[in-house]
Amino acid sequence: MIRNASSRKSRRSSSRAERPGAERPRLSQVYRRLLAAYGPQGWWPVTANGGDTPAYRPRFFGSLDESFRTEIALGAILTQNTAWTNVVKALANLRKAGLKHLSDIQGAPLMKIERLIRPAGYFRQKARKLRIFSEHVLRKAEAFSSYLTLPTSRLRDDLLSVWGIGPETADSILLYAARRPVFVVDAYTKRILGRMGYFHEDKASYGDIQRLCMGHLPRRHEIYNEMHALFVAHAKNHCRSKPECPGCPLLMSCRHGGSARA
Description:
- The chain is mainly alpha-helical.
- Helix content is 59%, strand content 0%.
- The chain has helices at 2-18, 27-38, 66-78, 84-96, 102-107, 110-116, 123-140, 144-147, 152-160, 167-177, 187-195, 206-216, 221-237, 255-261.
- Helix 3 packs antiparallel against helix 10 (167-177), helix 9 crosses helix 10 and helix 11 (187-195) crosses helix 13 (221-237).
């Protein structure tokens, strides 16, 4: 009886996994489907000369100057535990106050930084993070752009040694400011790929997911840039905490969506 029950359970599980639409596509296929659905995202948004707020620039992968690289790094720190709309306000305040470079952050009174970045939340903690990050970089190099020329693995380790910078923030700086082929994993990446059956959401670590993505996508910073941004777009449009499956461009390959249809 136990054997038969187990066999029936196994057949049900196998049938569910093999149901049309349940097969996992290659990550390159996921990339193409998301790109067709949402188009180029233009990450990381930066403030152009003469502009007031960061703007997205689809298909731009050209050179970045010192102020752009600095704004990306500051934004990567400020966006921790808050919405990007709040970060935009904080960055605009810093820019209007003339704090465009790490040397400006290093020399500004801490209370002034706190006041300027208040819209981003946790402003006292984040002001310290910005100050400590600026001091750390400028101890290592004369400018942020020079610091970013370190070899990738060494640069990542050094970023992770700074108080307040974890893997997602470090990798955002590597990918977007330094243009290194390092995939950024966030909650949206974990949610989408977990629901599609690439791993168990509650068991996969940051490193597990990063290795999966970097092992199955072309090793190019342009691809990693776009894929990360497309995951964010998809999570906001369809793969929300409570998913909106109708119209999802990945529905036919999603195990979570497939179970919802069954």
